[in-house]
Design a protein that fits this description.
13 helices, Alkaline Phosphatase, subunit A, binds 2-acetamido-2-deoxy-beta-D-glucopyranose, eight-stranded mixed β-sheet, alpha/beta, four-stranded antiparallel β-sheet, Gyrase A, domain 2, 450 residues, 17% strand, binds zinc ion
Length: 450
């Protein structure tokens, strides 16, 4: 793999020094996430700006997030292209099963030991290849990876008000300055809505609809600023999100303390009362017993030993995942000792639940216009980002083909131009490396269109 990366770097350098065709300058890329924007949130609210963007660019019917459908794990999938079991950010909360210590979402943002677990996010990969990058509130954007940090960042304060529309405009202006004055190539911009409103009032509430209108106004403002800066033909804009939102069902609630023959005295570590997911470490010798009493405890509760957790989730095969993994059916959250979860809306559910699906929209020089594409997975977004930035990706679990149809034929991305170096030796080397690195079971490394 390293040999291949070196080879590609050499090719790219050669490309810069002796272009066989006039080298186009690299387009900039803005990745925007509006947290908790369910795939169909634009269907019961007027969204003129999102609609205009769809006409000017590309819209996916929806995209499928990875499991567990939580904020930090999914955002890290977006910027690494790895399933959650492969990047290790398995929960919004940092925890240690030995000491029982847990840290909230906000504090976890500053714990590099949680994020830097073997996968490099695109910021660092891009910087290593000579690009400049930024993060504004993006989950994972405040950590240090193998000693390196994103070039420019803004980090939210504790108890941040994520819904302040005035601040949203200020943040958009800041990002536009980063592109124009600081000449950044890639920025990831995060908004904490409509997630917060969806949790508090529920996904079917008027408050959520009003917040979607606010998101739509922000999209209009952003596109206007891109126009003002004269960047419509040099900036690719992607608007996506992490997960959807499900209405919480209040009847027949799951409360583990009420389960016959289940006792918290058999549990060494618990991560409960966090939406529909539960992680348990039974005390030594208690695993079988706890598993047996829980697995038939409630018709809406799924309980698995880690190694039997369904493979389709790509979730459990990581050292941080505990010996028992629990999840609730759509609408059902898991309470531990008491009913302490009062949100009207929740996420974290099975990623096959339609209400967990989320949005993907894109506009800019690389994209087709007025095209609706078929659903794909969040894990595929990373390969697209790398392709748009014309950088060589790290090994990842996505498929660059999944997003191929949305790209304008005239985009002329330079990694594709590798085919112009019609040097047989080079092609053979690339082919043999690709074959060696694509053994069955290994992650898809990266693909050129050769
Ligand atoms: C958890 O805490 C124990 C005890 O302090 C420590 O030995 C261990 O390294 C910690 N584990 C992690 C993953 O931080
Ligand atoms: C961001 O990282 C810095 C440096 O590691 C840390 O001091 C700060 O607390 C972090 N901010 C958040 C929100 O975690
Ligand atoms: C990931 O974190 C776990 C502790 O949570 C640690 O044991 C493991 O070595 C880390 N892996 C990498 C590649 O950093
Ligand atoms: C919203 O943000 C603006 C600009 O940052 C600030 O001046 C204002 O006080 C904020 N309003 C609220 C209600 O937080
Ligand atoms: C609970 O344990 C008792 C004693 O072992 C047993 O008789 C009973 O069937 C168990 N109940 C359930 C629901 O597992
Ligand atoms: C689990 O992950 C390890 C690497 O951490 C990998 O070698 C192994 O093949 C994976 N197992 C499955 C069943 O995916
Ligand atoms: C991507 O598409 C090409 C051409 O259609 C195909 O040959 C290749 O096998 C696909 N790669 C993957 C990983 O699906
Ligand atoms: Zn979220």
């Amino acid at each position: 793999m390293f040999a291949l990366l070196g080879l590609v770097a050499t090719l790219l350098t050669l490309g810069a020094a002796a272009p066989l065709q006039e080298a186009k300058s690299r387009n900039k890329l803005l990745l925007v996430s509006f947290d908790g924007f369910r795939w169909n949130y634009d269907q019961d609210v007027d969204t003129p700006n999102l609609d205009t963007m769809a006409r000017d660019g590309v819209k996916a019917k929806y995209i499928t997030p990875p499991f567990v459908t939580q904020t930090s794990p999914i955002h890290f999938t977006l910027v690494t292209g790895r399933y959650i079991e492969n990047h290790g950010v398995i929960h919004n909360m940092w925890f240690n099963t030995t000491t029982g210590q847990k840290l909230a979402y906000y504090t976890t943002q500053g714990r590099s030991d949680w994020w830097d677990n073997g996968s490099l996010p695109i910021w660092i990969t891009a910087q290593r290849q000579g690009l400049k990058t930024g993060s504004l509130f993006f989950p994972g954007g405040n950590a240090t990876y193998q000693g390196e940090q994103v070039n420019v960042k803004k980090v939210e304060k504790l108890l941040h008000n994520y819904g302040n529309e005035t601040e949203w405009k200020g943040n958009i202006d800041m990002v536009m300055k980063w592109f124009s004055e600081d000449d950044l190539d890639f920025v990831a911009l995060y908004f904490g809505e409509p997630d917060s409103t969806g949790h508090k009032y529920g996904p079917e509430s008027q408050q959520r609809k009003d917040m979607v209108s606010q998101v739509d106004r922000a999209v209009g403002y952003l596109r206007q600023r891109i126009l003002d800066y004269g960047m419509t033909s040099t900036l690719n804009l992607i608007i996506t999100s992490d997960h959807g939102m499900e209405t919480v069902i209040k009847e027949n609630e799951i409360v583990l303390r009420n389960v016959a023959n289940f006792s918290f005295s058999d549990i060494q570590f618990e991560m409960l009362d966090y939406g529909p997911q539960g992680l348990l470490v039974p005390k030594p010798g208690k695993l079988e017993q706890v598993y047996e009493v829980l697995k038939t405890a409630h018709s809406k509760l799924h309980v698995y030993k880690k190694e039997e957790f369904p493979k389709r989730f790509h979730y459990a095969n990581h050292t941080r995942v505990t010996p028992l993994v629990l999840y609730g059916d759509p609408g059902y959250v898991i309470n531990g000792r008491l009913k302490v979860q009062f949100n009207k809306g929740e996420h974290g559910f099975d990623n096959e639940d339609m209400n967990m699906k989320t949005i993907f929209r894109a506009v800019g020089p690389a994209f087709e216009r007025g095209l609706e594409v078929e659903p794909f997975e969040s894990v595929d977004v990373y390969a697209l980002l790398c392709k748009l930035l014309e950088i060589v990706p790290e090994p990842h679990d996505g498929n660059v083909n999944a997003t191929q149809a949305m790209l304008a034929k005239s985009a002329g991305l330079s990694l594709e131009n590798i085919q112009y170096y019609n040097n047989q030796l080079v092609n053979e080397l690339i082919q043999s490396e690709l074959i060696n690195s694509n053994k069955p079971g290994s992650v898809v490394g990266f693909q050129f269109h050769i």
